[in-house]
């Protein structure tokens, strides 16, 4: 990890010593380059004394000149050229209007000015991450235009991205004591810049950006892991020293040239592994790790054989990233062994060149450009540029700025799958991508017209998760159009932000009347499935922040609002409930003990949910005073209640839901399906996975029609849980319908 602050630019008196600072940079300069840097240093130092404008994405007490020195220090460690160093040195002063772009371009050339302009445009990412902030120049179009130009700059000159990464690294270091700005800067770095550093292969910065942002966003988790690491530091250092001694003996006897170092395990990496695998700190075995650097690739495999001969390797814990590099170009051998004292040890083996690639990413391209055997690295560099161009194309096509950040964080953080087109071309997709994602990746119109897919020659559903090595063929219709179900997250048709954006863009272009009709049809279908026939649609529209019911329908039809959100709003109009006993309140109204059901105008009576309609929180309800059983609570559209109103209108009372703790409610569910082997097992498995209790099951089979009918009584906590369950059942093969029974 880069040190939080190296004070190498200060003299013994605490003043900035430019000659000393310049001499300690990890690069060499000729006389002309050194003269340009000194000129830039003097300009930056003088600019710090000029008036300027404070920017909210830096610590309030930081100085533009010392910040420029720190940015330049990081860029020098990435081995960039003098023009890039000058741009990094002067960026903060230009950003705060202490220097003008024209002045910089005139003194140091157009190349430096162009890089600075690109980095300034990248500052728009701050507005992108918080859509409630005022847009650039007070105009939404200006913000979108800035993001587009930012991406163009990154594509045309990767040094722009490197300067911004270095600047954000310094910014997050500087906010340690600035509580007001620490959290938003950390969130921006975590969401955008740490993934970008990973994508560009710059491990040198990635780990620090992740650890520092994690420290400020999840302070308690960070401190806990840090204390656990400190508590085991002496034991771990002693163990690593013994490992180094044994490895030195074995590798030395084999005549290999090598370098062995202990490898620090980063705190965020430990936490992420604990979260992903659901394990405790003691089960993260690769906290004890060493890295072995050797001259050539053949030495990597020779060293691997010696390590496995010295200690027993753990099955399924070997990764060959040399033969199969990671998507960001990372190459190394990883293995886990049972080392001295029976403790598990991770060993990484790589060449020195691979190590520089892992630390510097695309920056290593310039260092080895033109050397023999580096065509693969150049190819990796071009792939990174191609990825940036892909993001740019998506933004140009949809005009979606909010999704750019999601594309950065999602595409970078996830593993990838590699599938083939029918012509044999390889397509790189995010883990979990579906054939529909593949179709939209190929071309927007292919996605719109998609009606089916074949994987390795067999028909698969459009929700199928693609696997590496599969051959995908898309089946299209001549006049195809997207389906609104594709936008429902729970149905699993689309996994990537890019594909969803294209579908939403298509529906937004349709006529409002068509969207209203489609939205009404979608909601009526879902509400019917949930047996919700007595809802106040105006209240629901207000809950989802729509002025009218028609606006809500139009938003659902255009894909801006999902039917799941509307269902959640319907159930959210009232809170969950608990106990059924009635109590007298101070105002004279009566309410259920535990705030389950409020009942107006009655004494201390018991309540119970009517077995005929089984109301749930969210349903409109009415009470009926029974003889001996208190108040029976019915849904207002219950057929039994209609008969009771006609026969005994004086016993009908007003009731409504209250607030309380969670309680389960009995609901009847009807399932119609074409019979098949294992159908009942699959359905009950869904209930078990959802932790929903099944009280009774009644099944019947029509052998002539090969159909099966099921009636289940289950316990659910609320309307949302029931909706999710029915959605999963409807997605099972051979299931025709699954719905809540109203009677």
From TrEMBL:
Keywords on record: Kinase, Transferase
Pathway recorded for this protein: Purine metabolism
Function: In eubacteria ppGpp (guanosine 3'-diphosphate 5'-diphosphate) is a mediator of the stringent response that coordinates a variety of cellular activities in response to changes in nutritional abundance.
NCBIfam families in the record: PRK10872.1, spoT_relA
Domain ACT: 668-743
Superkingdom of the source species: Bacteria
Domain TGS, chain residue ranges per copy: 415-476
Family, per entry: Belongs to the relA/spoT family.
Descriptive protein name: GTP pyrophosphokinase
PANTHER family, per the entry: GTP PYROPHOSPHOKINASE, GUANOSINE-3',5'-BIS DIPHOSPHATE 3'-PYROPHOSPHOHYDROLASE
Record's GO cellular component terms: plasma membrane
GO BP annotation list: guanosine tetraphosphate metabolic process; nucleobase-containing small molecule interconversion; response to starvation
Gene Ontology MF terms in the entry: GTP diphosphokinase activity; guanosine-3',5'-bis(diphosphate) 3'-diphosphatase activity; kinase activity
Matches recorded under InterPro entries: ACT-like_dom_sf (IPR045865), ACT_dom (IPR002912), Beta-grasp_dom_sf (IPR012675), NT_sf (IPR043519), RelA/Spo_fam (IPR004811), RelA/SpoT_AH_RIS (IPR045600), RelA_SpoT (IPR007685), TGS (IPR004095)
Name of one Pfam family that matches: RelA_SpoT
